[in-house]
Amino acid sequence: MNSNEHIERKNSPRAGLIPYFITKDGTIEYMFMMPSNPKFGGPFLQISKGMIDDDEDTLTTAIREAEEELGFKESNGFDYEHLVKDVVTTRAEVYFMDVYFCKVKKQFDFIRPHYETKYTTWVTNEQFQREGRRGHLKYVDEIEDILQERIRNGELECWVDKE
Fold first, then answer.
1. CA–centroid distance for 23 within its chain
2. Is the CB of residue 19 less than 8 Å from the CB of residue 70?
3. Which residues contact 75 (CB under 8 A, 6 or more apart)?
C-alpha cells in the first residue's frame, strides 16, 4: 500500500459485529477479541471490526470481520440487528462505524480466527466494562439494556445451544 492509499483508507468507514449468547441461567455473554498487536487497540478486549470494502454494505463487512477476527461462522448467527452508526474519533483519525449485534445458535461453534487475533473470549457486560476498549464500552451497555428489557418483557428467552 502506498502512502496515498494509506491516507485514503485511514479515515475510511468501518463496521463491526458483537455476537451474544444467553445462558440457561439468563446470563448474557458477548464475544470479543484481543488483537495480537497492541498498537491496534491496546491491551483491551474489543469489537471485531474493519474497513468497508467498495462492494460491501455495512452488515456484510461486520460479518466478514467477525469471521476473520473471531472465527465467527455466518451460519451460526441469526437475528442480526443494527445498533448504531457512530462517529469515532481517535488521536489519529475520525471515521464512521456501524455496529451490529446478533444471537448465536451454538456458543462454541467458531473456527480459528485470523493471525491478527491473539485470542477470543466470551464475557459479560460487567467484565467487558473492566477489560474492554474504552470507546467500545457504550455499545455493549446499550445492547445489554436492549436485551435485558426484552428478557423482562418475555420477548427473548434464555437457551442452550440450538440446532
1. 19
2. yes
3. none
Closest CA to 83 of 126, 23, 147: 147
- In sequence order, the β-bridge partners of residue 85 are 98
Name the burial class of residue 154, with classes exposed (0-12), middle (13-18) and buried (19+) by CB atoms within 10 angstroms of its CB.
Answer: exposed
Report which of 60, 71, 81 is spatially closest to residue 109, judged by C-alpha positions: 71
Tens digits of residue pLDDT in 102-147: 999 999 999 999 898 999 999 999 999 999 999 999 999 999 999 9
CB contact set of 106 (below 8 Å; sequence gap of 6+): 76, 161, 162
- How far apart CA 138 and CA 53 sit, in angstroms, is 26
How many Å apart are CA 32 and CA 99, to the nearest integer? 13
H or E element at residue 61: helix 58-70
Q: Are 67 and 120 in contact (CB under 8 A)?
A: no
Please tell me the distance from the alpha carbon of residue 71 to that of residue 117, in angstroms, as a whole number: 10
Cβ contact 37:84 at 8 Å: no
Scanning the structure block, which residue is given the C-alpha cell 468497508? 52
pTM: 0.89
